[in-house]
Design a protein that fits this description.
Layout lengths: L1 H13 L16 H15 L1 H4 L10 H18 L7 H5 L3 H14 L3 H7 L6 H16 L10 H7 L27 H10 L12 H31 L3 H23 L10 H14 L7 H5 L3 H27 L7 H70 L3 H88 L6 H58 L3 H46 L2 H28 L1
Helix pairs in contact: 1-6, 2-4, 2-6, 18-19
């Protein structure tokens, strides 16, 4: 059992149970250690089942009984078939605890499954340590600030927490590919001028959040591109570079069309169209489009032309009015107040003229709209009338030809019948010729259609095979990455293992254990064979003895009728046979008793291993503690 206990203790330490180094057997386990080991195993096997269980025993006896019942119920839910209850944990014995721990250790997930589920890579060891630290911090209960120890101030204090504030980062990206090379200026900038990631944010607390945001954006972009390529890129039957270039050209064309649409000047921005024309043409040239001509940018509506014509005529009138006003001014010196009053009057008159002009322009715009609508209606009516005239001209031509044929009706009828017959014969001939050409064309069309459908099916099948191959390649790449990361992780763990313990020692130890087991099996087999041989020999001797007695009894019985001495010999023979039978029965009973004695001794050893006396003493102490708790509760109730 020593080897079994060592294996159990090693497995429990891997689950996180704090087993002391001086504990070498299950017999040394205390109730607190048993409860902790069972709870740790339950949390590893089924986190939902073991999350609500406490790994430590409470001080009160009633709470201990509840914890023991909860653990027993959890083990039964997990599939444990043995007898289990609160006494298994509070008043434990070695065989029951060993069988329970063996059941839980067998239920633990294998290392291969854990390794395949965990993320592989060089940082796996670091992630494990981080997860263990976080798990340890989460297992600690929350305490108010006044009750916290110095250790808890670092983990439960709100001081180290910061807001999740992100800032854009500039990261050097390497360009991969046989025909792609990074510019020397970019490499020099990355090497000499680009700040490290930790120095780019304005606050040091934003480094982690900015890195997480950057990584999430890159990861989402990569996933979106992969989804788009798997859904649309493969169907286009283009290479990834061609698909990207076509998508970029399509987007550039849409932007150029949008800019051309917005380049058309509106009435409210007609004055700024000339200023923005050059800028917009330069912008379109930067997008790869043709530059806009001046006439395109300056092309306006009827409103702009009317406005231009009006304002080109009005300045001449304004100049004439200003000249007339200047000539009418007296030659004497005028005061400043008169000048300001006259300027105010001129401004008022100009504003009135401007309002009148704007009203006149609005009226003209409404008239232009009405005229435009009426012209459209007239043009549509004109088209309809032209179509009606064309149809009437065709009817007139037909009627004119018919009227021309009326004077010579009989000859024309004969000619018409001959023409109809020749046309019918010609139609029949053409139909026969068409049937001759139609049959091979239909066969060829059917064959080509069937060939096209076969090619479509073949292309769809190949496309599905390509998708399957892509999925298999991706899965193989992921498995290769996982295996490579697992290999690196195992190498790292192997390097971190102590080098003073050689593997050969463990191998020799295992070989010795296997050799001892083999020797024990051989000895047991030899003992069984000897027992079978002895039983067979006993059976042979018993049969021989019975046959000899039967023959002797028959011979002596015949002579006993004639001779008195022979009669006495027969009696002695019968007595000897009876005594020998009793002796053999006594020997068999002695063997049975010896076996029963050995069984009782084994049972005594088992009962001694159960620590019955110690458990009874512990039960008495717990009973006294429960009575004290009950009396204390009763006193509180009476006081209340």
């Amino acid at each position: 059992m020593e080897e079994v206990d060592k294996i159990l203790i090693h497995s429990l330490r891997q689950t996180g149970t704090d087993v002391a180094d001086d504990i070498q057997s299950v017999k040394q386990f205390t109730s607190e250690l048993i409860v902790e080991a069972v709870v740790r195993c339950l949390r590893v096997i089924d986190p939902a089942l073991g999350s609500g269980l406490s790994p430590s025993l409470p001080p009160g006896m009633s709470a201990r009984f509840r914890v023991g019942m909860s653990l027993a119920q959890a083990c039964q839910d997990l599939g444990y078939k043995g007898e289990i209850g609160y006494q298994t944990f509070l008043y434990s014995n070695e065989p029951e605890i060993r069988s329970l721990l063996m059941f839980l250790v067998e239920k633990l997930p294998r290392e291969s499954a854990e390794a395949s589920d965990q993320p592989a890579g060089k940082s796996a060891v670091l992630q494990k340590s981080i997860a263990a630290q976080i798990r340890a911090q989460l297992s600690l209960p929350w305490l108010p600030p006044s009750c916290r120890l110095p250790l808890l101030f670092k983990t439960q204090s709100p001081g180290p927490s910061h807001n999740f504030h992100t800032q854009p980062l500039s990261l050097p990206h390497c360009v991969k590919g046989p025909g792609k090379k990074q510019l020397k200026e970019v490499m020099d900038y990355h090497r000499d001028y680009l700040l490290p990631v930790t120095a780019q944010p304005s606050q040091h607390a934003s480094v982690a959040s900015s890195l997480l945001e950057q990584h999430t954006a890159e990861l989402s972009a990569a996933q979106e591109w992969e989804n788009e390529w798997n859904s649309q890129g493969l169907l286009s039957r283009l290479t990834p570079e061609e698909y990207r270039s076509r998508k970029r050209a399509r987007l550039q064309k849409r932007i150029e069309e949008q800019l051309r649409t917005t380049a058309q000047p509106r009435p409210d921005v007609a004055a700024g169209a000339q200023r923005s024309g050059s800028d917009l043409s330069e912008l379109l040239q930067s997008f790869g489009g043709s530059p806009l001509n001046n006439d395109v940018l300056t092309k306006g509506t009827r409103f702009t032309h009317t406005q231009k014509f009006t304002f080109t005529q009005e300045p001449e009138k304004a100049v004439q009015q200003m000249a007339a006003a200047a000539s009418s001014l007296p030659s004497g010196r005028q005061s400043e107040e008169d000048v300001q009053a006259r300027q105010q009057e001129e401004m008022t008159s100009l504003q009135q003229q401007l309002q009148q002009l704007s009203l006149h322009i609005d009226e003209l715009g409404g008239d232009m709209k009405q005229l435009t609508v009426s012209m459209q209606q007239l043009s549509s009516e004109l088209k309809q009338r032209e179509l009606g005239n064309t149809e009437k001209d065709e009817g007139v031509q037909v009627k004119k030809q018919t009227i021309d044929l009326l004077p010579d009706v009989e000859n024309n009828m004969t000619k018409l019948q001959a023409l109809v017959e020749s046309s019918a014969n010609r139609v029949v001939n053409l139909a026969s010729q068409w049937e001759k050409h139609r049959a091979p064309l239909i066969d060829e069309h059917r064959s080509l259609k069937e060939l096209c459908s076969n090619r479509e099916m073949e292309s769809s099948r190949k496309l599905s095979e390509i998708k399957d191959l892509h999925d298999k390649i991706r899965q193989s790449a992921e498995e290769a990455k996982k295996k490579e990361g697992l290999y690196k992780q195992l190498i790292t763990e192997y390097e971190n293992l102590p080098k003073d313990v050689s593997r050969s020692a463990y191998t020799l130890r295992i070989l010795e254990i296997v050799g001892n087991i083999r020797k024990q099996k051989e000895e047991i087999t030899k003992i069984l064979c000897d027992t079978k041989e002895l039983q067979k020999e006993i059976n042979n001797l018993t049969g021989k003895l019975d046959r000899t007695f039967a023959v002797t009894d028959e011979l002596v019985f015949k002579d006993a009728k004639k001779d008195e001495s022979v009669r006495k010999s027969y009696k002695y023979l019968a007595a000897l046979h009876e005594n020998c039978t009793q002796l053999i029965q006594t020997i068999e009973d002695t063997g049975t008793i010896m076996r029963e004695i050995r069984d009782l001794e084994e049972q005594i050893e088992t009962e001694n291993g159960k620590k019955t006396v110690a458990n009874l003493e512990k039960i008495l102490e717990d009973y006294k503690a429960i009575r004290q708790e009950n009396s204390a509760l009763a006193a509180k109730i009476r006081e209340g």
